[in-house]
Design goal:
The chain has helices at residues 9-19, 50-54, 65-73, 202-206, and strands spanning 75-84, 91-102, 109-119, 125-128, 132-138, 145-149, 157-160, 169-172, 177-184, 190-197, 216-218. It is mainly beta and 236 residues long. The chain has an 8-stranded antiparallel barrel.
């Protein structure tokens, strides 16, 4: 059964051209014998850490950067997504609804669900893929966000690099936005997102003092990617 995303359907369709600004220096494409710049993220330095996720780094003290980042990340996000197959260069543009759930109130890791879909000219859902399940955690030292899709064939894993200046991510509690690059660590694919918060946990937000907590994470400047003709992709 299709999930109806009443929050953004028509608004997203109208906003997509503005959200994704076309760039002369599109970071998605490569030419000739050049190797895509993001291939370096699969060299082992950014691999999924099972030890970290399963046994260590489960929780963080309230008020630490990682705790605050998890506080902001949790919840439901929705907006345009552009996905590239890093082996063929084929790019797919569509919309995604991503929900991040923490394992407990102090956890900096958890589970999540992503639903990809396209919209028709009236802003209604046209086609929708089956839900994707994922695990996620935040590296307590770097602030990087790791996401592993558990129901893909190769358990596709991606990292969002907090220290990357142009190809990192932005997570902003005040504006309710979450966007940037998801870079394959056990695959050659790359994803770009421009999501907005669907729901705020108002009760919890009221307990957060902006004087003592961080509300923005990642890079202050992220290179945007153009949103093309809508088409869904099958995850590997």
């Amino acid at each position: 059964m299709k999930k109806i995303f009443t929050f953004v359907a028509a608004a997203l369709l109208m906003a997509a051209p503005a959200l994704f600004t076309s760039c002369d220096d599109d970071p998605w494409y490569w030419y000739g014998d050049d190797t895509p710049w993001w291939y370096g993220y699969d060299d082992g330095g950014y691999g999924w850490n099972d030890n970290y996720y399963d046994n260590g780094g489960n929780n963080s003290d309230e008020g630490t950067d990682a705790y605050d980042e998890a506080e902001v990340l949790q919840g439901e996000w929705e907006g345009p997504m552009v996905y590239t197959n890093g082996d063929t260069g084929q790019k797919s543009s569509f919309y995604a609804n991503m929900t991040f759930v923490r394992n407990n109130s102090n956890a900096i890791k958890g589970t999540g669900t992503e639903i990809d879909y396209t919209l028709d000219s009236n802003g209604k859902i046209d086609h929708q893929n089956d839900p994707l399940k994922f695990n996620w955690y935040i590296d307590e030292q770097s602030g990087d966000i790791y996401i592993k899709y558990t129901n893909t064939d190769n358990k596709s894993t991606f990292v969002m690099d907090a220290s990357a200046k142009q190809h990192g991510f932005q997570l902003d509690e005040n504006s309710g936005t979450f966007g940037g690059y998801m870079l394959g660590t056990n695959n050659n694919d790359m994803i770009y997102i421009e999501l907005k918060r669907v729901q705020n946990n108002s009760a919890k937000k009221l307990t957060r003092s902006t004087a003592t907590t961080h509300t923005f994470f990642g890079s202050t400047s992220v290179t945007s990617v153009s949103f093309g003709t809508q088409s869904l992709t099958t995850r590997r």
